[in-house]
Amino acid sequence: MAGKFDIFISYRRKGGYDTAKLLYDRLRLDGYSVSFDIDTLEKGNFDDELEKRVHDCKDFILVLSPGVFDRFFDPNCIPEDDWVRREISCALRLNKNIVPLALDGFAYPSQSLPADVKDILRKNVIDLSPRHFESAYTNLKTKFLLSKQSFATRHKKSIIAFAAAAVLVLAACAFMAISAIYAQKDLEAKEAELKAQELQASAQRIVDSLRVAKESEIARATDSIARYIDSVKKASAATAKPRTAGTTNVTHVTHVTNVQAPPPPVPSSSGKTLHWRSGSRGADQIIFDKIKYAGIEKSKCSGNNLQLTVNKASCKVANVKGQVSCNWSPKLTVSTCDNRPVASFDSQNINTGILDNEELAKKSLETMARQINLTAWVSDLRKLK
After folding, report:
1. Which helix H or strand E contains 169, and what residues bound it?
2. What is the pTM (predicted TM-score) of this model?
3. What are phi and psi of 128, to 5 degrees?
4. Burial 50-86 (b: 16+ CB within 10 A, else e)
5. At what angle do helices 358-369 and 282-291 cross, to 10 degrees?
6. Helices (H), 57-155
7. For residue 382, how many other CB atoms are within 10 A of its CB?
8. Would you call 185 exposed, middle or buried from its count of C-beta atoms within 10 A (0-12, 13-18, 19+)?
9. Which listed residue, 17, 91, 212, 265, has the most CB atoms within 10 A of its CB?
């Protein structure tokens, strides 16, 4: 069984359904509780349920379509089977607030209405023609209906204002809480950065002291290795068979990490020039600064000269906190100007470990790259020239 409804709409399906449905939809949207047989009737006897709804309603709206009263005068029509007549009779008997709405083309019959419904003629009628529908509808709500709109509809503006104020208060509280959290994190990050800078400065002082102590030893060892490699190459050249024309000899040399002292420049013997193809920032520039003593130019490669390319470091997110780790095994590739490989040189792998963000990881990688000893690369590049 459905709940109680404040407004009951009575109509003839022929000529009155569309208007009744429109009224039902508009009143529902405006927050009224409305009974409409097709949409709101549930289980139970149809006639009992309709009369119960008339009994429980506050307002009885009667849609006066053309010919709405014709069945009242049909001798073949049984009054008990005429639902509109039963609804009007019940509303009059219960003294409901009856509001007749006259559609275009409606006129009261010239004959007298039956006794149980004749008092409907005494009710004030609202003209509900399409030309004046909005004004008539407003007049119906403000001057004729006893029913009230739902609480939410009547106090819509107040509810919206209260909800908006509540949202603003919650947003302000959330903003203050988040600001406090970020302020604490910023403080912790600054403290960590200061400690990292102190550790980096300490490590740099240690490296500088080792550099000063080892410079002469490194230079002597580098010259000795270079002489040894040169003698081995000469011996190999003397015993090796002639190579087939067009074959490219690719060599692969691996060097270890150490503190590098710049070697003295050696003039080119074959007339080939070395051209730098990698970038001019970050780790690329650090590698260039370490091997530029081999006579490398930052210009376009042409002719039978050689071009140099260094591989890129790999940085990736290490965990759900967004911390970053960078890994790099510096590799220098030597090729002809038309990209045929000639040689490649490797250095020891360096890894930054897990740091708070990518910027810190890249800075740490660049610091570690500055400690790589690439003196042997310089010597081998000079021989390639």
Report:
1. helix 156-239
2. 0.42
3. -110, 40
4. bbbbbeebbbbbbbbbbebbebbeeeeeeeeebbbbb
5. 0
6. 83-93, 133-139, 151-154
7. 19
8. exposed
9. 91
**Cα–Cα distance, 369 to 221 (Å, whole number):** 21
Q: Which two tokens stand for residue 136?
A: 């008539």
Question: Which DSSP category does 241 fall into?
Answer: P
Placement of tokens 């650090």 in the chain: 286
pLDDT per position in the chain (385 positions), as tens?
446 899 999 999 999 999 999 999 999 999 999 998 654 455 445 677 888 999 999 999 999 999 999 999 999 999 888 999 999 999 999 999 999 999 999 999 999 999 999 999 999 999 998 999 999 999 999 999 999 998 877 666 777 888 888 888 898 889 989 988 998 898 888 888 888 888 888 788 887 767 766 775 665 656 666 676 776 677 666 655 444 334 334 444 444 445 565 665 555 445 789 999 999 899 999 999 999 989 999 999 999 999 999 999 999 999 999 999 999 999 999 999 999 999 999 999 999 999 999 999 999 999 999 999 999 999 999 988 7
CATH class assigned to 7-151: alpha beta
Euclidean distance between the first and the last CA atom of the chain, given in angstroms as a whole number: 100
- The Cα–Cα gap between 232 and 164 comes to 85
DSSP symbols for 267-328 = --SS---EEE-S-SSHHHHHHHHHHGGGTEESS---TT-EEEEEPPPEEEE-STT--EEEEE
**Domain spanning 247-384: CATH 3.30.160:** yes
- 381 vs 40: CA distance, rounded Å: 92
- From CA 203, how far away is CA 247, in angstroms rounded? 47
Task: Show me where the domains of the chain are located.
Answer: 7-151, 247-384
Residue type, position 324, single letter: V
Q: Which of 71, 132, 72 is nearest to 101 (CA)?
A: 132
Answer whether 228's CB lies under 8 Å from 344's CB.
no
Of 361, 348, 366, which is closest to residue 318 (Cα–Cα)? 361
